């Protein structure tokens, strides 16, 4: 049994003994078997682990796309399990910026129109929407491509539009599942440099990746195995807040390279 975990208001994200069981007829798949994690504001975190270890299941729950079978999830001091479905959609739209691996932009729409979609859903007026979307495109270096359609952009630029869209609501947290999975290595480095810039500007970022090089850009690496946390390491210095919340965890020299990912 997991040890008792106490609610910690200093954490931007806290999951407590989270379990997820998928029922397939008579068979139960235990995708998460009691995971507890705290993430503080401003962290840049990679989630790694073999195929089937529970990474996407955990991300879907963190992103409020699905609910755990048991356990508690606090996001920005809201207990997500106690929130009704309508309000949940609102929280998801406002507080979480998603970057998906398959670039899910609308192909016949301009970059700026793709970026402003979350603000349309949020009911924001056109002028303010355009201003915010332009600001967001500029922050990813695409101010001069605002009126290009996705099929008139390079792969890296398309991914940057997806990141601009994730940023436009000023979310509490940016979540990315394999954000560089479809990109060549040069473009991947470009995208990771962008995530690092966003991190230095104070954004909180959680990403799933199989690639040690990509994880090496993060501060902290959590490894899942069979639905449990196998390790939780820091490879870059902690912020004072992180040290306060997590305790003083010694730096690991090069953990990203010292493990072989099984898949
Ligand atoms: N909707 C579902 N119904 C039943 N079982 C599922 C479902 N989604 C995931 N699983 C099972 O839960 C486990 C964890 O799956 P998950 O998708 O979280 O793995 P992952 O770590 O993201 O793997 P990958 O690296 O391949 O994306 C797997 O054994 C998977 O087969
Ligand atoms: Mg997955």
Describe this structure in words.
The chain has 263 residues and is an alpha/beta fold. The chain has a single domain (41-64, 84-258), classed as Rossmann fold (3-Layer(aba) Sandwich). Helix content is 33%, strand content 24%. The protein has nine helices and ten strands. The chain has helices spanning 55-62, 85-95, 111-121, 126-139, 155-167, 185-200, 212-215, 240-246, 255-258, and strands at 13-24, 27-39, 44-48, 70-75, 78-79, 96-99, 173-177, 205-208, 220-225, 228-234. The strands form two sheets. It has a six-stranded mixed sheet with strand order 6-7-8-3-9-10, with helices on both faces. A hairpin with a 2-residue loop joins strand 4 and strand 5 (78-79). Helix 3 (111-121) packs across helix 4 (126-139), helix 3 (111-121) runs parallel beside helix 5 (155-167) and helix 5 packs parallel to helix 6 (185-200). The longest helix has 16 residues, at 185-200. The two termini are 29 Å apart. Adenosine-5'-triphosphate binds next to strand 1, strand 2 and helix 1.
